[in-house]
Write a structure and sequence with these properties.
Elements lengths: L1 E3 L6 H13 L8 E4 L6 H7 L3 E4 L5 H11 L4 E4 L10 H9 L4 E5 L2 E3 L4 H17 L6 E4 H6 L11 H14 L4 E4 L5 E3 L2 H6 L3 H4 L1 H11 L1 H12 L4
Parallel strand pairs: 1-2, 2-3, 5-8, 6-9
Antiparallel strand pairs: 4-7, 5-7
Helix pairs in contact: 10-11
């Protein structure tokens, strides 16, 4: 399931990588693009590549993810952002992981499409949190029943909805002695377009001042963070 807003530039490369991964897998895979009120050719391109297009009017990535999940017919759900590319063995690995009754779900993790000192330091800073929590990114997957028990993605959150979902999914698993897993042998390739736009060190120059001001400015600081995610220059 792919949430997408004005992604005509990057969506084809993701869909091509998904098609490669589908061909490598023995189980049927349904490709769904949740078109989150795009004003470009996102929906048209998705349809041309054979994806099921689900229109989503509410401009929130959590709403797009949930709408895509609701439209899916399969028992296993997998979510990936439109600016990524998946590993050719992604669905083979997910199918194997979900065959275990000890796994509630998880993620593949990512590598970056390019590297630099700033990108490497940013990546390294985030890794300990991933190791401690097992909350990773890339292709996120789980069973439909567990997705529903976790409450899906929280549509009241405009950002960090993916972290909140994995926390809820982990709690669902704990109740049944199941765990999150990381399929790091099939990492997705993540776009660096935010770094291309804001600079390779921007996590250390933009976010600390905003977070420090959050206690003083409240909503104003939050709007700056939200603009970072919802109003990219494309």
């Amino acid at each position: 399931m792919i949430p997408a807003y004005n992604e005509e530039r990057v969506l084809p490369r993701l869909l091509e990588s998904v098609a490669d991964a589908v061909r490598a897998c023995d189980v049927p895979v349904e490709t769904i693009v949740a078109d989150n009120a795009s004003t470009d050719r996102t929906a048209l391109l998705a349809a041309e590549y054979g994806a099921t297009v689900v229109p989503v009017a509410k401009r929130a990535i959590a709403a797009a993810r949930n709408a895509g999940a609701a439209a899916a017919r399969g028992e296993i759900l997998a979510f990936v952002d439109a600016d990524m590319r998946v590993h050719p063995e992604t669905f083979v690995a997910i199918d194997a992981a979900m065959a275990s009754d000890r796994v509630v779900g998880g993620a593949t993790g990512v590598t970056l499409e390019r590297w630099s000192p700033g990108l490497a330091v940013t990546f390294a800073v985030m890794l300990p949190v991933v190791w401690l929590t097992s909350f990773d990114t890339g292709v996120v997957f789980c069973r439909r029943s567990d997705f529903e028990n976790a409450g899906g993605y929280d549509e009241s959150l405009r950002l960090a909805e993916d972290v909140a979902f994995l926390a809820a999914l982990r709690n669902v698993g704990k109740a049944q002695r199941r765990r999150l897993t990381r399929l790091t042998h099939v990492k997705a390739i993540a776009s660096t377009r935010k770094f291309d736009e804001h600079g390779d060190w921007h996590f250390f120059t933009i976010f600390p001042p905003v977070l420090l001001r959050f206690g003083l400015e409240g909503r104003s600081a939050l709007r700056r963070i939200e603009r970072y995610w919802y109003e990219p220059n494309r």
